[in-house]
Write a structure and sequence with these properties.
Elements: H1 14-25, E1 29-33, E2 40-44, H2 45-56, E3 62-65, H3 70-86, H4 92-98, E4 107-112, E5 123-128, H5 135-149, H6 159-167, H7 186-189, H8 192-204, H9 212-224, E6 227-230, E7 233-237, H10 248-265
Antiparallel strand pairs: 1-2, 3-7, 4-5, 6-7
Protein name: Reverse transcriptase domain-containing protein
Organism: Pleurodeles waltl
InterPro entries: RT_dom (IPR000477)
Length: about 270
């Protein structure tokens, strides 16, 4: 049936196509998706680079390092995974997935927050770990965390889920209002060890699980070894959970869930 499907028509003129190629190849502008709203931002490259560099100079969150400890990190990961394999915690297929041979170095980029400042937007840092040594570990950890996130009392899956919950509210007392709030820079402000302790708390609810210590070890590796490249320089994120890691949303949700348990529901 695909053989007889109508061919899609190219909807750009020759001049428009050439203009797009020219924009793509120019180094004076940087094109990035906006942080919110689904739009595209076209930035002066010098402005983008300066904003990113200024963000990475904050000693609370980032530290400049001479190089990426990739060989040492891969050796440590392989040793941990081999111990788990020999203990029967993971199978050979899982070992192969968690121990990639060929890996790359993560990179960081910024999503411009034009809703806060359109002319000189701050950046939301995203660390792309695709193809890195920690990417499989992050995905593995997230398979255990996602189901627990869905059990949080305040869990909202998506817009449709939110609408269905609102429609279920048949009665609202006078004087009560629906409000929302935002946690500023949540991901970068989560203390790494506290995040691990919170995840351990939730994992312990699963009962006696021989994989528990291995899952936490994988999470420690992901959070404590967030190294990345920007413009040819290497950095280490020393505080927070980097957006871009597969398990980052689940870790952040569980961290806030533990806060809600302590200060709201109790």
């Amino acid at each position: 049936m695909l053989l007889h499907a109508p061919r899609s028509r190219y909807n750009l003129s020759k001049d428009e196509s050439m203009a797009l190629k020219s924009l793509k190849n120019t180094r004076t502008i940087t094109v990035k998706p906006c942080d919110k709203g689904g739009g595209i931002a076209i930035l002066d490259t010098n402005l983008y680079m300066d904003n990113m560099e200024n963000m990475l100079q904050c000693p609370v969150f980032y530290k400049s390092i001479p190089g990426h400890p990739e060989i040492k990190l891969k050796r440590s990961i392989k040793t941990t995974n081999l111990e788990a394999l020999e203990a029967g915690v993971i199978c050979k297929k899982e070992f192969d997935f968690l121990t990639p041979v060929h890996t790359g170095i993560p990179i960081i980029y910024g999503l411009p927050k034009i809703h806060k400042d359109a002319s000189n937007p701050p950046m939301r840092p995203i660390v792309s770990t695709i193809g890195s040594a920690i990417e499989p570990l992050s995905k593995y950890v997230d398979t255990f965390l996602k189901p627990m996130v869905a059990l949080l009392p305040s869990y909202i899956r998506d817009t449709g889920h939110f609408i269905s919950k609102i429609e279920g509210l048949k009665y609202r007392p006078d004087g009560e209002y629906l409000v929302t709030m935002d946690l500023e820079s949540l991901y970068t402000n989560i203390p790494q060890q506290e995040a691990i302790d919170v995840v351990a708390l939730y994992l312990n609810r699963r009962g006696d699980d021989p994989a528990l210590s291995f899952i936490l070890k994988c999470l420690e590796t992901v959070l404590f070894n967030n190294y990345f490249d920007f413009n040819g320089k290497m950095y280490h994120q020393i505080k927070g959970v980097s957006m871009g890691a597969a398990c980052a949303p689940s870790v952040a949700n569980l961290y806030v869930g533990a806060f809600e348990d302590k200060f709201i529901y109790n």
